[in-house]
Write a structure and sequence with these properties.
single chain; alpha/beta; five-stranded parallel sheet; 18 helices
């Protein structure tokens, strides 16, 4: 009898295995050694590893009830198993299990598809320091709508940050490649931000050319993965995540560069663009947007939101033909054509009477007013862009810089007057 008692006590003292709180899901987790280290650091021994096929079977077991999240790790070789990975995400979401995607050398299109299926977050591999910890904390944070007090506090914070801003939107659209739209957008944003030495307007520059955007090059700023994360899940965007996706240049302008990888322009839709513009307007006095020359579903969204839609062209046949087709499209769709302001880059000099006559004939044939005549800045413009500097810092006396500075001054006064009137 005593032996039985001792045996019962001994069994009772043996610790029960900890429930599995998370699992990595991969073809071979040994290919992601940094993930193993981070999982052990965050969860100790309360995590497991599964293949893609085993994950589906495990999610149907009672042991999966304690699961908090799955960390799906994949590389380019796993793109052929996209359907299987999508099934894992769908089943996990159906069981209220969060999903963190960890990807190495995976195409942006594939990541976009998986995030649309319901993945809760994305991390690049190799994992940045502390990235997994931050991602786990985010998925553990309760949604604001379930906790009214948290939601109220968040709203109060946002109001404090944004109460004084209802920014003007200035979009810049080049009607052909190489017409200088990005140069114009970058320098216009810089001139607006530096118009006043103190208490100048807060200016934001958004690069919406997700494939060939060059604002990062022209301002010597790195392209960051966080921009892709923001674009992939604007529904989860709050004020903090939006501001974290921006970089500052010389403490004067905030810039959202194009992502590190070339992305399809339809990675975002009209609702995503509206959400980004709402955040930008709430935080800044002026928002300058560098648009892609390609027309996409959300071009109309920007056009409808813009106070001024600068349309750049040159004195050549391709610009004239593209302008004609662009105007026809806007008129046929009953879009706000009146917001367009045509700017002719590399315009003829004042003494070039033949060139000025060509400009007049072009405007008459297109039935447009050319509001801005931007002079040819020549090699100094290329040099400034290659050095990652605004023209005012590299060639302050350049004729193109002077013209953009004059435009910025008039826009600054107009925006200030409207703000006082409001």
């Amino acid at each position: 009898m005593k032996g039985e008692t001792r045996m019962s006590i001994s069994v009772a003292l043996q610790p029960e295995p900890a429930p599995v709180a998370a699992c990595t899901v991969s073809r071979d987790v040994q290919n992601f050694d940094l993930l193993i280290e981070d999982m052990e650091a965050e969860l100790g021994e309360s995590w497991g590893d599964l293949s893609f096929g085993d994950a589906i079977a495990f999610l149907d077991q009672p042991d999966a009830n304690a699961l908090e999240f799955l960390a799906i790790a994949m590389d380019s070789e796993d793109e052929s198993d996209l359907t299987l990975i999508g099934d894992v995400i769908n089943i996990a979401r159906g069981r209220d299990v969060k999903v963190i995607l960890i990807a190495q050398d995976v195409s942006p299109v594939v990541l976009h598809q998986l995030l649309n299926l319901g993945a809760d977050g994305f991390l690049p591999y190799p994992l940045p320091e502390g990235a997994l910890h931050d991602a786990i904390q985010r998925i553990r944070t309760p949604l604001p709508e379930h906790h009214p007090q948290v939601s109220q506090d968040s709203a109060t914070t946002a109001k404090k940050d944004t109460a004084n801003h209802d920014g003007a939107i200035l979009a810049v659209h080049g009607l052909a490649g190489g017409v200088g739209a990005t140069t114009f957008a970058v320098n216009l944003a810089w001139e607006l931000a530096t118009k006043e030495k103190k208490d100048g307007p807060r200016v934001c520059l958004l690069d919406f050319d997700f494939q060939t955007g060059s604002t990062s090059t022209y301002l010597d700023l790195p392209r960051r993965d966080i921009v892709y994360e923001l674009l992939s899940d604007t529904a989860a965007m709050d004020n903090d995540s939006f501001m974290q996706a921006l970089q500052t240049y010389n403490d004067k302008i905030h810039v959202m560069t194009a992502p590190a990888d070339m992305l399809p322009l339809d990675i975002v839709g009209p609702d995503d663009i509206t959400a980004i513009l709402d955040r930008a307007r709430a935080n800044f006095d002026v928002v300058v947007i560098d648009m892609p020359s390609t027309l996409v579903a959300w071009t109309e969204t920007v056009l409808n939101s813009a106070d001024i839609y600068f349309t750049l062209l040159e004195l050549d046949m391709r610009s004239a033909q593209n302008a004609l087709r662009f105007i026809r499209l806007l008129k046929s769709e009953d879009l706000p054509y009146e917001r367009l302001r045509f700017a002719l880059n590399r315009a003829p000099k004042f003494t070039d009477l033949q060139g000025k006559a060509r400009v007049k004939r072009m405007a008459e044939s297109l039935d447009i007013d050319i509001d801005l005549m931007l002079p040819d800045g020549q090699r100094q413009v290329t040099q400034a862009c290659d050095h990652g500097l605004p023209l005012s810092q590299n060639a302050a006396k350049n004729p193109l810089r002077k013209e953009i500075a004059k435009l910025a001054a008039s826009l600054h006064d107009l925006i200030a007057n409207e703000a006082e009137g409001g």
